[in-house]
């Protein structure tokens, strides 16, 4: 079982700056003692209860947490003058146990930001007219097949098309919106973000898990995506002899897609909708604040509506067996379209599956920007981007998570160029099947511990 990371490991306490009388009178607490309406960035505590956040109330989801990495990953423009932006929040104290495994503002990061800013101006990094046209088309496409499913009764054809349409909403609409990347207007992102609930998920649980995934990509302990399929499958390449390894993982390359076909089932009937406590990240983040609790009713209402439209309605028109068959087809199609594509992004031969290894050995922070590149892959071009919501550009997406996916095809060549210049490994597959092959290979070799066997052989121990 992973350690409770919310209760920080013992470490040398970070000194709280005391350069003024005001600083000396401010409270000094540990991260675990942050109140619901407080966040910490680096070692400073801010009260966000009355903060009018330009990106909307989404910031309140993170109340009670250290959000240093999350802040830096989405506010790229603040790095030139962070004090100016942070001064807009009310500073109320310091945390004494702040510890960060990542470092920022490296030369690699600065050059990436500088060159990309020449292509995409900060104020124009949101959804383009083309993005909104595609979003409108996918919403209409989904609405039509949802209507057919409910009004005319489910069928095999409707099941396939409804499953595809729900996946398109998940990839192309709610994803950008819940990253705050669709529009500068928070209400637009807020509205489109509920697309997650109309495909069987939950906007708030998604934000909890996905933003944590972005902050700690492939982190062996903190990335909820990395442990989401355990114990059925292993995405993490654990050491030989690790108790999380089971005999059947040696064959996971053969069954990992069938297992992923149950993604919809695990989402729709997940009990965390009752409290919005995302289980995969609960050891890393604290999701017990009042804002999240206030969102539970809307989450429950939308889940009831979804179940009525997609699960109950087939039984009105068909026998139980036929209804279940149609639901199974719809759910499998959606699951494979979503989770099948997700699995490519960070699970492939050559991916850095544990970017903070050196930090745990030496306590030397690792370059967050470099880690994002070396844990992710990019495949295809803008055509794949139109279908996957730009998620084929995972490297670019993880470097600029609050940039609309419509811009990723334009910045990808420059990102590759800068990575080559700095010796940063950039995984790019011209065709999606090449990424699939790399993923199947990784699942086979990691499941059987073959990477570790080879390492031991090189050391003369096997």
From TrEMBL:
The keyword ATP-binding does not apply. The chain crosses the membrane at residues 253-274, 295-317, 323-344. Pfam families: Cyt-b5, FA_desaturase. GO terms for cellular component: membrane. CDD domains: Delta6-FADS-like. InterPro entries: Cyt_B5-like_heme/steroid-bd, Cyt_B5-like_heme/steroid_sf, FA_desaturase_dom, Fatty_acid_desaturase. It comes from the Eukaryota. Keywords: Membrane, Transmembrane, Transmembrane helix. GO terms for molecular function: oxidoreductase activity, acting on paired donors, with oxidation of a pair of donors resulting in the reduction of molecular oxygen to two molecules of water. GO terms for biological process: lipid metabolic process. Residues 1-24 are annotated as: Disordered. Residues 29-96 form the Cytochrome b5 heme-binding domain. The keyword Transmembrane applies. SUPFAM superfamilies: Cytochrome b5-like heme/steroid binding domain. This is Cytochrome b5 heme-binding domain-containing protein.
